[in-house]
């Protein structure tokens, strides 16, 4: 009988290459940056009992939805940001628009996007960079219905999500990253989109 987990070995390889490229201890690949932020906020909220989180007024609406869907009250920061920003008081960083060899910020959960408009344009996908082994293990289980990697379904022990990175996306990412490393490539910086002011568009459960 074939091991169904074998198809995901390429995801493991992509995570290893990504962590090496961004200089983090671990990379956990998921199917979108929004879900990377959702998992990270959920972990932080449960660990620290955070009740609210501060977001910039102008950012992607999926970040707001991730905060609302994980039970946070939202506070607004009107200040502009460049490349990335932190979702205070959590350790979560939205780095969807910034992927460079030094993308990882020590001690954080740095969330990346591989949307077609981003610097690693795989069409879909995202990842969490971290140096926290306990958190990395939790993320790997939480993205697969609460089941630790390679464990039977009976091992599911907590409410979770189903948002793994598809193997074909990981394979494309592995190919692109290998060529970046071979050439010493550094993606060009990306400008910040003119995001709408979310504080004026959606007020439900927000302060």
Strand order of the largest sheet: 1-7-6-5-4
Task: Give the oligomer, counting copies of the same chain as homo and different chains as hetero.
Answer: single chain
Reading the helices and strands in chain order gives: HEHEHEEEEEHHH
Main sheet summary: 5 strands, mixed
CATH class: Alpha Beta
Low-confidence segments, given as residue ranges, are none
Number-wise, the strands total 7
Residue share in helix: 25-40%
Q: What is the CATH T-level topology?
A: Aspartate Aminotransferase, domain 2
The number of helical runs is 6
Mean of residue pLDDT? 89
Can you tag this structure with a few keywords?
207 residues; alpha/beta; Aspartate Aminotransferase, domain 2; five-stranded mixed β-sheet; two-stranded parallel ribbon; 6 helices; 7 strands
Give an overview in words:
This protein is an alpha/beta fold and 207 residues long. The protein has a single domain, classed as 3-Layer(aba) Sandwich (Aspartate Aminotransferase, domain 2), CATH 3.40.640. 34% of the residues lie in helices and 14% in strands. It contains 6 helices and 7 strands, in the order αβαβαβββββααα. The strands form 2 sheets. It has a 5-stranded mixed sheet. α1 runs parallel beside α5 and α2 packs parallel to α3. The radius of gyration is 17 Å and the shape is globular. The N and C termini lie far apart (54 Å).
């Amino acid at each position: 009988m074939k091991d169904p987990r074998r198809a995901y070995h390429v995801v493991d390889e992509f995570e290893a290459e990504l962590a090496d490229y961004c200089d983090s201890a671990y990379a956990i690949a998921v199917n979108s940056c929004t879900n990377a932020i959702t998992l990270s906020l959920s972990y932080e909220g449960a660990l620290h009992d955070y009740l609210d989180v501060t977001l910039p007024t102008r950012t992607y609406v999926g970040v707001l939805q991730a905060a609302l869907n994980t039970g946070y009250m939202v506070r607004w920061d009107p200040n502009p940001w460049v490349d990335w920003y932190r979702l205070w008081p959590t350790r979560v960083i939205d780095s969807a628009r910034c992927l460079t060899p030094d993308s990882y910020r020590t001690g954080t959960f740095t969330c990346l996007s591989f949307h077609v408009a981003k610097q690693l344009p795989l069409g879909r996908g995202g990842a969490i960079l971290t140096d926290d082994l306990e958190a990395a293990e939790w993320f790997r289980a939480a993205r697969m219905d609460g089941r630790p990697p390679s464990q039977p379904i009976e091992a599911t022990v907590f409410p979770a999500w189903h948002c793994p990175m598809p193997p074909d996306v990981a394979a494309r990412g592995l190919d692109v990253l290998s060529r970046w490393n071979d050439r010493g490539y550094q993606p060009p910086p990306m400008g910040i989109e003119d995001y709408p002011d979310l504080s004026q568009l959606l007020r439900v459960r927000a302060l």
